[in-house]
Amino acid sequence: MKRIPFSGRAAIVCSLILALGIPSVAVGFGEGRNLLLGKRNPSNNANLALNTETEIIADTTTYGTRQSNKKDGDGGSAIYGCRSNPGNEPCLRANNLKGGRAFEFVTIGKEGGRIEVGGDKTGAPLTTNATGVATGFNADKVDGKEAADFAPATSLTFAAISDDGTATPTATGPTTPTVTLATTGDNAVYTVDLKRDVSKCSYTAAPIGSPSPVAPGVAAVPNQVNQVAVNFGGSEATPPAARRGSFHLQVIC
What we know:
By secondary structure, this protein is mostly beta strands. Helices cover about 10% and strands about 20% of the residues.
């Protein structure tokens, strides 16, 4: 068998090929290489982007990684970008596997943060499957209305008065009102005690059932801040008699 001569120079060339050629194939897209500080990693060539996850795993009581920018007055500490379609992975996800907070944002400034939506601004800025009250949130608008467009619950109340004309009238409502009836001549006056101060409110009484030819008169009771008087007046009978009936009393403060 004929032996092929193998010179020292050939051995050196082969060694260089093995040293340079094999790693260049194994880490052609940057995997396995060290992070270059102050540079674009792994390369400015978009075709050489990493195609596997870069994992940083820690076992510490503080934080796994820390990014900070010490430039005073300008510059952030981190920016994350992606090209994920709706319904796919978000650009940033924090997942707490033990039940604690998944994220926390802290600033010494007045504004805590901002969510910007591109394109259709009518979309929801964020969504959640939680149903609890978000402590500290103050919604300026609800269904397109300003907070000033809504009257607070404490400014509204009502009473439903039931009177069949024979028995003692009764009252129901959110403040557990009571009612008394006094008939003087051809006037039937209902005094409704709403169990709260309504002296600076407006009142509306609406009869229930058959239409009334005359709207009931409504007025505050002097020196009784909780009470409203509703006067049904007299009937069309001859001689006139006190008109009785059921009605709703609405109070707006």
